[in-house]
Amino acid sequence: MITSSSSSVRTGPCPAQLWIFSSIGKKTIVSLTGIALVLFVIGHLLGNFTIYLGPDAMNLYAEKLHSLGPILWAIRLALLATVVLHIYFTMLLWKENKAARPQKYIASDPIKTTVFARTMRLSGLIVLSFVIFHLAHFTVRVVDPSFQNMETQLDGRQVHDVYAMVVKGFSSAPVVLGYVIGLFLLTFHLSHGISSLFQTLGITNSHIRHTYELAARVLAWALFAGYTSIPIAVFVFGLGKGAAQ
C-alpha cells in the first residue's frame, strides 16, 4: 500500500494555537493577564504609600527600583506585553460575542448585566489613555519638563527627587481632577473585571457569585480610595509642600 508522503505531514495550526484562539483559551488569557495587572495595581499603590513616610522614604524606594537596571526594564516590558495581550484577547472575545448575538435583545435583564459590565470596553479604553498620560507625566516626564531637573541628596548621593516631583505634579487642579476621573473609571473597570476572573476560571458558582462580586467591588473602591488619597492629600491638605520646596 502506497501512502502519499504529504499525508504524513501535519498541516494547519498546532494544538497550542488552537487552544489559545479557542473561546476558553481567550477567556483564560484575559483572566490570567487581568490577575497579573490587578496584582501590579495593588503593589504599585503600596509603593506609592511611601509618600506618607516622607521624602527620604519615597526617594529611597524609587532609587531601589531604578537600581534594578535591566531587571526593571524587563518588568516594564513584561507589563506592557501583559496589557497588550489583555486588550487584544478582550477585543477578540467582544467580537466573538457580538458575532454570536448580532441583534441586541429588546429587553435586558438588569440582574445579569450591570452598569459595570456594560461599560467595560469604554472604561478600559479610557483607562488605557489615563495610564499613557500617567507614564508620560511621572515616568517619561514630558508633561512637565522641570521634572527632569529635580534632584536631591540621599545618603550622600545625588538622586532624582521623586517626592518633590509628585508633590509638584499634584499641585495642579486639572491634573488632580484628571487623575480622580481616571481612577474612578479604573474602579468601574475593576468592579466587574475582578469578579469576572473567578467566573471565567471556573472557581465560582451561582451560590457564591454575589460574594465574589461584593469582594471585587470592595477591593476596587479600596484601591480608588488609596490612589486618590495621594493627589487629594497634596492638593487639598498640602502634603509635602514644605519639604518639596
Question: Strands, helices and their partners?
Answer:
Elements: H1 15-20, H2 23-48, H3 55-66, H4 70-100, H5 115-118, H6 120-139, E1 151-154, E2 157-160, H7 162-169, H8 173-200, H9 209-235
Antiparallel strand pairs: 1-2
Describe this structure as you would to a colleague.
The chain is mainly α and 245 residues long. The protein has a single domain, classed as Fumarate reductase/succinate dehydrogenase, transmembrane subunit (3 helical TM bundles of succinate and fumarate reductases, Up-down Bundle), CATH 1.20.1300.10. 66% of the residues lie in helices and 3% in strands. It contains 9 helices and 2 strands, in the order ααααααββααα. α2 packs across α4. The relative contact order is 0.12.
| DSSP summary: helix tally | 9
Number of strands: 2
Q: CATH H-level name... which superfamily?
A: Fumarate reductase/succinate dehydrogenase, transmembrane subunit
Over all CA atoms, what is the radius of gyration?
23 Å
CATH architecture: Up-down Bundle
Strand percent estimate: under 5%
Which range best describes the helical content: under 10%, 10-25%, 25-40%, 40-55%, 55-70% or over 70%?
A: 55-70%
Query: What is the CATH C level class, in words?
Result: Mainly Alpha
Short recap of the structure:
The chain is mainly α and 245 residues long. The chain is 66% helix and 3% strand.
Task: Based on the model shown, name its key terms.
3% strand; 3 helical TM bundles of succinate and fumarate reductases; 9 helices
